[in-house]
Amino acid sequence: MNLRERQWIISGIFLLITLIFLGRLMQMQIFSDEWKDYAARLTEETETLTPARGLILDRNGNILLNNKAGYDIWFTPRVCTAAGGLDTNQLALLLGISREELEREFKRANAYASYRPSNIRKQLPAEDYAKISGDLWRYPGIEARRRSIRTNPSGLASHLLGEYGEVNQNDIDANEGYRLGDYKGKSGLEFQWEEVLRGKPGIKRHIVDLRNDYRESAQQGELDTLPIPGSDLHLTIDMELQAYAEKIMANKRGAIVALDPNTGEILAMVSAPTYETDLLTGRDRGNNYDSLLNHKNKPLFNRSMRATYRPGSIFKMVQGLIALESRAISPSTRIFCDRMVIGCHGDHSFDNLEEAIAHSCNPYFHEVMKRMIQDGSTGSVFSDAHSNLGDWAESVRNFGFGTDLGGHFPSLRTGMVPDTADYDKMYGRKRWAYSTIYSISIGEGELLATPLHMANLAAIIANHGHYFAPHVVKSVGDSIDDSFKPERFETDIKPSNFNSIIRAMQSVVTSIDGTGKKAQVPGITVCGKTGTVQTKRVDHSVFIAFAPMENPQIALSVYVENAGSGGDWAAPIASLIIEKQLNGEVTQKEKERRMIRTTYPFPKYFP
Amino acid sequence: MRRTAPIFQRIDWFTAAAVMALMIIGLFNVASATSGADAVDWFDWGNKQGKQIIWVAIGILFAATILLIEGEFFIKTAVIHYGFNLLTLLAVLAIGKTIGGAKSWFSFGNVGIQPSEFAKTGTALMLAWLLSRTSEKIATRDNLIKAIIVIGIPAGLILLQPDAGTVLVFGGLIFVFYREGLSGNVLMGVFSALLITVATILTGANQLNYPVIGSHSAVFMLWGVLLGIGLILWITTPYWIVPRRRKFVRRVILISGIASIGFSGMLHGGMEKVLKPHQRDRIHVLFGIDVGNPDADYNIRHSKAAIGSGSWTGKGFLQGPMTAYGFVPEQETDFIFCTIGEEWGFFGSSFVLILFTGLLVRILMLAERQRSAFTRIYAYGVASILFMHYLINVGMVIGLAPVIGIPLPFVSAGGSSLIGFTLLIFILLRLDAERFTVLR
Ligand SMILES: [Zn+2]
Fold first, then answer.
1. What pLDDT, in 10s, does the model give residues A44-77?
2. Residue B303 touches chain A, beta carbons under 8 Å
3. Tens-place pLDDT, residues B297-320
């Protein structure tokens, strides 16, 4: 080969290298997005402009849930490494966490992205931040960013308001615009009204430099949006009444639900024991959550909507009303208190309906329901029960039992109104008769209802036969909008049939030997009914009431677990709540003192 | 003297234009890389693009001066030129300033001069002078040894700085020998050595458990394989080689086997014992070996991101965020190609590659039209040196070669390299301009 021709081999090598380079450039710049994406991750950062979350206010405009200034501490590993590291001992001390915890956070941050800031200390309240802000600059890679912290300054209505917490992977995957480290409503109204409260986050896209400092806006800010603040939520809750009811229920287990029977607006809703919402925000959330979760009294459990209790004697009014409407009895029907199948209390023997409710006569209502269920129409006690229970259950459901009460509370449990199918399943088809199921005639057995359902029963009686869907949100946004009208539900029972029931409830409270006389309020006619629900341990104490009798403004249920008789505990508590709401001030100081002071375990016999 | 046309009409304007184009491309990109997010202050002599303008001006002045000097001068002074270069390389080891771990710089106030950038010209001249003295066959063993000494002395001095990148550039002079008659087998040998290098690095980073000797580097496996191949070839020789040639072939097998394993062993030993851990990491990163340190390939990942983000047309002059906000280190010098990639896209960067290739091929064409062996050999030297810079620098920034800090000729910021390359190429242009007038 001529040496001259070797120039072509050498040229060929040069060309080959250039072709390889061109191919590589093609792949890097045109075909693959890998390096473009990587460059974007390095040089662009989308800042989320978090809108102010809507406040939650009570019916008088008092703030229940507020936002306060706070700070998150962020850490960028690369900045720290570049500056030669930092003293983790000192920093941990400053941030008030252990060194191990801090180093764990550092490791996590590094695993996430060494050039990106990671949140290592969340929701530092402004007052705590003020103490350390002067020293933070000493630590390379550490910076503080403002964030607002959700706070419930009064600590009231925690169950109702719910929890506001960091999003989890499911929330992020749901593609609703949540990103790691964002917060959202996790339960209660915070969860239910998330969309309204949250507002719309804005975004601002930045070009950042190597130190991750913002330098200019990306794409000349064309893609940026402003945040739209969340709307405030105006509740029907009366903060003063709520506070009072929570005070009364301190150190007890149970619930109080008070509502306005004329509108279905809930005035107070207490689940006891309660907790402070703010315990579940911030750094100690984990520990606090665990100790609340494992507490024997289950403070996180919202008894007012989630606990299903047997209603007990308060169910006798429902029984009486259905029987009146179906003409199984009339107000003057008298029945012997024979105490053969079912026991009774007190000194009576041949009550009419009104007296039977006042005395809470068990045999009376056993017989009343028997007349409806086992009417002899088929000649078989099994077939009688099988064909009649459905109508009865339907009538009970008209009182809201076993329903969602209009659906304003997603977490409300419907409770249980046993129907034909339920008993067929339990005992076999037509293998049960009234004698099998009679305990539901006095509100025991399979019947289950929440305190909200029970308060709603009081409202139905106060309204002579109808109720408005119980609700807690009055309006959304800045202007109070009165156009919202809750759905009205009818029981299909003639208003006149309520007269004897209401008179009976009045005498429960007002008569000398009334079981609910501790529910009396000076100057106000209270109508109520006690219940004492048997349990394996001490009985639950139940009371429902409305007042004033002539023009009902409040209807409520009080349920105190394992306290004893309804008249001794639930009734006086109802009295205090009614007085507080209707008179604004409680004059029955001795009663109030005794109720607040009493804690578990309840004295078994009250003097 | 048959022709008397002025020298500026006789020089190869294609080459000169390509060089000028690269300088101007360099100026713009150095300006972008230097000024960050701010507007370019072109005539701020304190910053790098201001200095680069001055260097380009000085370079043009040097170029013009060189074109006015008789080519004969460079031939006659080749030895002096070379000797002077060696002196400066010695001096820099004694009184030089250490920057970035290498004692490569003379410091005059705020101006630094890097003698190794000039030593390439001297070595190319010396090599041309040495090899062109023999009239008949150039690629003799005698000449080869002399040439290796001529290249080896400056390369050795530069290695002491240490500046491995520049030493590698001298390795490119093998193309000169090849053109002058060195056996193609040597090129093949170099290629085989590269293959073994890659295999040694890949296997050397692993640990394997062996039956008897326990846990050792997987390079033992490679040596075993090489040994096995050698043995098989040795034993099977009778089946594929005529008896007459058998003895010779067996000797070749023996020598190349010992050479391969010895080379691989020395390389592996060097990697483990001589290189510093971060240097070893750089090489490992290139070969996709996980070095357990996310920062080890930080430079090259950022460099690739900058280039990749350029897409077809780039982000536009001064519009590249990776360039503006300091994501790529050594942005205006060794990594200047990133700025081109990011701000001028595939069109811009492939234009630069094609310009370089055009320049290289053009130099080979100039070389082949010479009647003078000196000019031809010198031209091949120039092409080899430029090619090695091109190969290593561009290969590095696009992730095909290890991170070795050498400049992209005429484009990277820095006076020494700019002036050095200007001298290198304009001496050639002057010699080429005299191709009809001088017989050597
Ligand atoms: Zn009785």
1. 888 878 888 999 999 999 999 999 888 888 888 8
2. no
3. 777 888 888 898 888 888 888 878
Facing A21 at nearest CB: one of B181, B301, B398 = B398
Q: Does B422 score more than 80 pLDDT?
A: yes
Q: Which range, B70-84, B173-187, B216-230, has the best average confidence (pLDDT)?
A: B70-84
* Confidence tier at B141 by pLDDT (50, 70, 90): confident
Q: Which parts of A56-117 are beta strand (E)?
A: 56-57, 63-75
CATH of domain A66-153: 3.90.1310.10
Question: Tens of pLDDT along A456-467?
Answer: 999 999 999 999
Q: β-pairing, A350-351 with A466-468?
A: unpaired
Centroid of ligand 1 to alpha carbon of A518 (angstroms): 21
Nearest to B305 among A13, A26, A42 (CB): A42
In chain A, where does the domain assigned CATH 3.90.1310.10 lie? 42-62+154-235, 66-153
Q: Is-contact B294 A14, C-beta < 8 A?
A: no
> A605 falls in which pLDDT band (50, 70, 90)?
very low
Cβ-Cβ contacts under 8 Å, A216 against chain B: 37
How far from B133 is each of A562, B144, B256, CA to CA, in Å? Answer: 116, 13, 33
Is A215 an 8 Å CB contact of chain B? yes
- Whether B311 sits inside 8 A of A29 (CB atoms) is yes
Report the distance separating Cα B83 and Cα B152, nearest Å: 13
Q: Looking at this predicted complex, what is its ipTM?
A: 0.87
Report the 10 Å Cβ neighbour count for A240: 18
Q: Which residues of A touch B329 (CB under 8 A)?
A: none
Q: Report strand pairing: A56-57 vs A233-235.
A: parallel
How many angstroms separate the CA atoms of B16 and B359, rounded?
9
Report how far residue B218's alpha carbon sits from residue B418's, in angstroms, rounded to the nearest whole number. Answer: 44
**CATH class (in words) of the domain with range A42-62+154-235:** alpha beta
φ, ψ for residue A569, nearest 5 deg? -120, -55
Which pLDDT belongs to residue A607? 33
> Rounded distance, CA A114 to CA A105, Å?
12
Q: Does B396 touch chain A (CB under 8 A)?
A: no
